[in-house]
Specification:
Layout (H helix, E strand, L loop, with lengths): L6 E18 L4 E14 L4 E6 L4 H15 L7 H10 L15 H23 L3 H4 L7 E7 L10 H11 L4 E5 L5 H15 L4 E5 L6 H11 L4 E5 L8 H10 L4 E3 L6 H9 L5 E2 L8 H15 L2 E2 L5 H9 L8 E4 L6 H5 L1 E3 L2 E3 L2 E3 L9 E2 L1 H6 L3
Parallel strand pairs: 4-5, 4-11, 5-6, 6-7, 7-8, 8-9, 9-10
Antiparallel strand pairs: 1-2, 2-3, 4-14, 12-15, 13-14
Helix pairs in contact: 1-3, 2-3, 3-10, 5-6, 6-7, 7-8, 8-9, 9-10
The structure holds magnesium ion (MG).
């Protein structure tokens, strides 16, 4: 295929699927999962797909509809110009105001969905997978399995059996949700999990912003004996890079952060001032693949590692393109946690033996199962 033409339409497909049981992190409970599929169509008929995994889905859908007139008629290859044009709307321009600051997370998510679809189009137009556009070979990308959500009525150490199950299924690294209970009880969960998975499996802890600084220092001291790979999103939402730097000085466990950041600018300061070693910027939550690529270059310069949050079938293309700094993508060890990921795609990268295996199809290598999408339309 040659050059694609101009952006002719942006369509959205909101999808929602119930979870079998309500699952809780330290931060929130969820009874369902949602995904906003973003379809950009060119005037010569190429369709590209992006996805948004942020909330509220209805608001983000509304923002995509409001942003669409700004990109209609632009070159479908011009992801940089499209990104800049949409991002500029979030700050005042001469003679006009800006989009509302209260909606920033949803606007950045909407920009991300459109941006990812343009990368899919670029690959399809070139007849190349996105990883090839970025200069990578098709190679397995490391992944870990996330689990250990809090479920009403389950015994305290149920997480140990669950994560040992992931290991039995081939995962070499597992991530435990933690931080929702007392430190004493969390230590019981972590000790049981370490005993169940054995000494050779990497164990990450995801705190979902559970602690203030002294609390997290105490937590880090208590869990250090269990050979912890990283502490993820350790501090309350309002704490800043300087606070992360103090935490990093107080513990030998590396810090991971970035899934809640909206741009490369705040992410940069966590990386440099905050001593964050694993950067988890999520293209499907904010700002798209273009911004995730900028973050990855920044991490490379800083000697940190990228390990994007969520959406392994898309983020694997990015991680593959950074052989020195690309550490891993995140998978959910159990289909019960992410039924959409297991149901929506008729083809995509496959997870086995703690690695993501990409296909050779152009773009992100994703085919949509439209029957599933219709059945679960939100
Ligand atoms: Mg997390």
């Amino acid at each position: 295929m040659g050059n694609p033409g101009k952006i002719a339409a942006v369509n959205t497909h909101p999808i929602s699927a119930p979870l079998k049981r309500v699952q809780r992190t330290a931060h929130e409970s969820r009874g369902d999962v949602t995904l906003l599929l973003v379809e950009v169509v060119t005037d010569d008929g190429i369709k590209g797909y992006g996805q948004v995994s942020s909330t509220p889905m209805k608001d983000i859908d509304g923002w995509i509809k409001k942003l669409t007139p700004h990109v209609i008629g632009m070159s479908a290859l011009a992801h940089g110009d499209v990104w800049e044009k949409l991002f500029a709307l979030t700050s005042p321009q001469p003679g006009q105001g800006a989009l509302p600051r209260s909606a920033r997370p949803q606007i950045m998510a909407a920009i991300g969905g459109i941006d990812m679809a343009l990368w899919d189009i670029k690959g399809k137009a070139a007849g190349m997978p996105v990883y090839a556009l970025l200069g990578a070979e098709n190679k397995p990308v490391f992944t870990y399995g996330t689990g250990g959500y809090y479920i009403e009525g389950e015994k305290l150490t149920a997480c140990a059996d669950e994560l040992a199950g992931f290991v039995a299924n081939g995962y070499k690294a597992v991530k435990l949700k933690t931080g929702a209970d007392t430190i004493a009880n969390e230590v019981k969960r972590i000790a049981a999990t370490r005993a169940a998975i054995g000494p050779d499996i990497s164990l990450m802890l995801d705190l979902n912003a559970a602690y203030d600084l002294p609390g997290c220092m105490a937590f880090a001291r208590a869990v250090a004996p269990y050979n912890i790979f990283w502490l993820e999103e350790p501090l309350h939402w309002y704490l800043q890079p300087a606070d992360f730097a103090l935490l990093a000085k107080a513990t030998t466990i590396p810090l991971a952060h970035g899934e809640r950041e909206l741009t490369r600018f705040t992410t940069r300061d966590f990386l440099t001032i905050g001593s964050v070693r694993y950067v988890m910027f999520d293209a499907t939550r904010a700002a798209g693949f273009t911004e995730a690529l900028r973050v990855a270059h920044m991490a490379d310069h800083a000697g940190a590692m990228i390990t994007p949050h969520h959406a392994p079938e898309m983020h694997c293309h990015l991680v593959a393109a950074f052989p020195r700094t690309g550490f891993a993508v995140e998978s959910h060890g159990s289909p019960d946690r992410d039924p959409i990921w297991h149901g929506l795609f008729s083809d995509r990268a496959q997870v086995r033996d703690s690695h993501v295996y990409m296909n050779d199809k152009p773009g992100f290598g994703i085919d949509i199962d439209w029957d599933y999408a219709k059945k679960h339309a939100a």
